[in-house]
């Protein structure tokens, strides 16, 4: 009986130690899980930083690419066009009546206060010089042709003008070449619409650096 009581007396202590061991094991497991979670979070932060850095680097690189492309485009647009004749310091006064211009067709000088509508406009009849010059002041290119230009060339130029903003076209008999392209202070004479300089002239002078009033409207004026 004494032996049985002694054994019975030891069980509470053993149960307490067992409970402590279980609690310690649980805490160790919790700490292990916590450390593992912290490690995972650190890895995720590093991964996020790495991905963000790559994306930013790509954006910056892409930005420089776009800037370089834009600069290349500006360089190409500013390239000179062979055969262009230029004038400088032409007057810009608004006047009534006709003006005696230095060149034919005129590419600048005093002009009417109302511009000719000059946005993708194809006219089959002559337009007044004074209104046309005002269109050039707004950055438009005026395509003119006489009876020496072939029907096919006139049709080709008409199609080109109809799809090019800030351009207009009209017949003009008093010119020495079948086709003439006119911008403010600049003029190019060609024989054929297929001449590659036609497109180069448009690329350079439509709303080009020569424009006295860049961004001014090419609509809302007069239609002859």
UniProtKB/TrEMBL annotation:
Residues 14-29 have a biased composition (Basic and acidic residues). It comes from the Bacteria. Residues 1-29 are annotated as: Disordered. The chain crosses the membrane at residues 44-67. Residues 1-12 have a biased composition (Low complexity). The keyword Iron does not apply. It holds the Pfam family DUF3105. Keywords: Membrane, Transmembrane, Transmembrane helix. Coiled coil: none annotated. This is DUF3105 domain-containing protein.
